[in-house]
Design goal:
By secondary structure, this protein is α/β, with parallel strands linked by helices. The protein folds into three domains: 36 residues, no CATH class; 186 residues, Ribosomal Protein S5, domain 2; 245 residues, P-loop containing nucleotide triphosphate hydrolases (Rossmann fold), CATH 3.40.50. Helices cover 36% and strands 16% of the residues. The strands form seven sheets. The chain has a five-stranded parallel sheet. A four-stranded mixed sheet has the order 3-4-6-5. A three-stranded parallel sheet has the order 7-10-11, sandwiched between helices. Helix 8 crosses helix 21 and helix 20 runs parallel beside helix 22. The protein is elongated and about 95 Å long. It starts with a strand and ends in an 11-residue tail after the last helix. It binds adenosine-5'-triphosphate and magnesium ion.
């Protein structure tokens, strides 16, 4: 196979033996130089540039072989792994070869990097440059290796390999003018750099605060390639960026929304309190404008405050998805995600070519709100079943298999019928029973099975809306929820993976949700007389357990069972 290279439009084809190729090129070049009048118009004479470090014609530097090593890191799943970048310049025809399973974005980096290196006022060895990304058996994605590759190329070109290069981990995408652009996943990268014992991470300035949340490692933000190089060789000092995670967490640990914004709706608020206390999934059914979305947005505000551990886990996912910026460098409050009903399975669960987390994982430790539930594709809702059950989602693609955490509270909302006014006291419903049935059947039974509470949300009247008295604040409700959660944590201490009533298995159900004869009778009546489905049985017991915990009662009283039964609207045949 031939190797193609040459000056201007003229190209010389030679065999694999590169010395032969270079000689052929040199002969053409010298002849063209000596007899310019016979030159083709496009011919450019060979560069006479002098190597800045060695003081000899730059082209001759091809004869010198140089190897530089720079450290970087990349994200795999929700964690990062270190990547060693080796840049080797050797003689030969100009070529840049990137090896080590690079994806398209990494392969393209050679064009960005060479242009950025040139535009930053550096020379790069125009010989055969090999860039190796180790470990070679893991696929490398994205443009975050641009900065370390460029630094390696400058190091070999200037014949100046900084000793301290191994102290640092570099990440950053390069603009053609040498500017450093933000990248995704800086938080897990900083955690990995610390684990590997590196002294500092050098990241794009826009990502510096996010990386600085990791203590025990220095973080430097750079604006451009020249600054990064000068910092690396000790010509320029940079101030490390510092963030006190605990302080930031405490300062940002509040919500802008509050439950007291919602007027009236005491029964719905109570249901949401029960849901938050036991981490139960909940479905709200009501006419348009009744406040379903408004209530859903406030569910996170009554959930127990995020622990630092939960916050770090959630921030890692947001970091990988590129959802953080200078202002929101850390996720200190429970996330609220509301994907549109046109979302694809991949968007919801995660995946795509380079396996990124989906909305179920972005909502991890927070609230996943599916508004207009019947409008979601049935297949999309079906794929939700496994993550809802396991609290994690495993995605398999050509690039590999990845597991992301996905333990969120599902809050869904829907209208009672296509026109939205079935059962409304003020407006007439225009739908036929058949239409209502079809609309309702769009939500699969198995998904409904995973939703513990169904709540009817009626429209609020003028008096309630304009009435002065604010309802309870989120703080007050949250205090009760926190207390109920503490009771559950103590109860399920021995059980693996179970922290709340919503996640208990059959064993815990039998041990902790026993009913007295009166409660049993109520449940039997609900199942037979009200036509509750069999799947409602366990749900009612779990919810009744949470209601008892909220009331501070060791035993599940008949009143708790009664309240739990009324949260099974969709299981009752009365609904249509
Ligand atoms: N209980 C309430 N207290 C105060 N404002 C309310 C209440 N209910 C509704 N609103 C007002 O009505 C607006 C619409 O409510 P929202 O969007 O939550 O309705 P919805 O039930 O989600 O309707 P849709 O079914 O059309 O999505 C809210 O933004 C709010 O201004
Ligand atoms: Mg809505």
């Amino acid at each position: 196979m031939g190797v193609r290279g040459g000056a201007g439009g003229r190209s010389v084809v030679a065999g694999r033996g590169e010395p032969g190729a270079r000689m052929a090129w040199d002969r053409t070049g010298i002849a063209a130089w000596l007899f310019p009048w016979i030159l083709p118009r496009q011919f450019t004479p060979p560069s006479l540039a002098i190597h800045p470090a060695l003081g000899i014609p730059a082209r001759l530097c091809n004869a010198f072989k140089m190897l530089a090593k720079v450290y970087s890191a990349a994200v795999l799943g929700i964690d990062a792994y270190e990547v060693e970048i080796e840049v080797n310049a050797a003689g030969g025809l100009p070529a840049i070869i990137v090896v080590g399973l690079p994806d398209t974005a990494v392969k393209e980096s050679k064009d960005r990097v060479t242009t950025a290196v040139g535009n930053s006022g550096f020379f790069w060895a125009h010989g055969r440059t090999t860039i190796n990304l180790a470990p070679a058996d893991v696929k490398k994605e994205g443009p975050s290796f641009d900065l370390p590759i460029a630094l390696g190329m400058i190091a070999v070109a200037l014949n100046q390999i900084p000793e301290q290069a191994s102290d640092f981990v570099f990440v950053g995408e390069l603009a053609l003018d040498g500017g450093v652009r933000p990248v995704k996943g800086v938080l897990p990268i900083a955690l990995e750099a610390r684990r590997c014992g590196r002294r500092a991470v050098v990241v794009p300035e826009a990502n510096a605060r996010e990386a600085a949340m990791v203590s025990g490692i220095e973080v430097y933000g750079v604006r451009n390639l020249r600054q990064a190089w000068q910092f690396l060789i000790g010509e320029q000092e940079l101030q490390p960026v510092r963030e006190d995670l605990d302080q930031f967490f405490a300062a940002h640990h509040h919500y802008d929304l509050d439950f007291s914004d919602v007027k009236g709706q005491p029964s719905v608020k109570r249901a949401l309190e029960v849901a938050a206390a036991g981490s139960h999934n909940v479905l709200m059914i009501g006419p348009p404008g009744s406040g379903k979305s408004m209530l859903a947005k406030r569910v996170a505000t009554i959930m127990p405050p995020m622990t630092l551990e939960e916050a770090i886990e959630t921030t890692k996912i947001h970091s990988i998805c590129g959802l953080l910026d200078g202002k929101n460098a850390f996720v200190a409050v429970r996330p609220f995600r509301s994907p549109h009903h046109t979302i694809s399975d991949v968007g919801l669960l995660g995946g795509s070519a380079n396996i990124t987390p989906g909305e179920v994982s972005v909502a991890h430790n927070g609230v996943l709100f599916l508004d207009e539930l019947p409008e979601f594709k049935r297949s999309t809702l079906e794929v939700m079943r496994q993550p809802l059950e396991d609290g994690k989602v495993t995605v398999t693609r050509a690039a590999g298999t990845m597991t992301f955490p996905a333990r969120s509270m599902l809050v869904a909302a829907m209208n009672p019928c296509p026109c939205g006014y079935h059962g409304d006291l003020k407006r007439d419903c225009r739908c036929s029973p058949n239409q209502i049935q079809r609309y309702r059947q769009r939500i699969s039974g198995p998904l409904l099975d995973r939703i513990d509470l169904h709540v009817e949300v009626g429209s609020v009247g003028f008096d309630e809306l304009s009435g002065g008295g604010d309802g309870e604040s989120s703080d007050t409700i949250r205090a009760r929820v926190v207390h109920a959660r503490e009771v559950q944590t103590a109860r399920y201490r021995g059980a693996r993976g179970v922290r709340t009533n919503a996640h208990i298995g059959t064993k815990e159900l039998r041990a902790h949700c026993a009913l007295d004869p009166q409660g049993m009778e109520l449940l039997r009546m609900a199942m037979t007389d009200l036509g509750l489905s069999a799947r409602a049985h366990d749900r009612i017991l779990k919810v009744a357990r949470t209601i008892a915990d909220l009331a501070g009662s060791e035993r599940i009283e008949p009143a708790h069972v009664l309240e739990a039964i009324q949260y099974r609207t969709l299981d009752r045949n009365l609904w249509v």
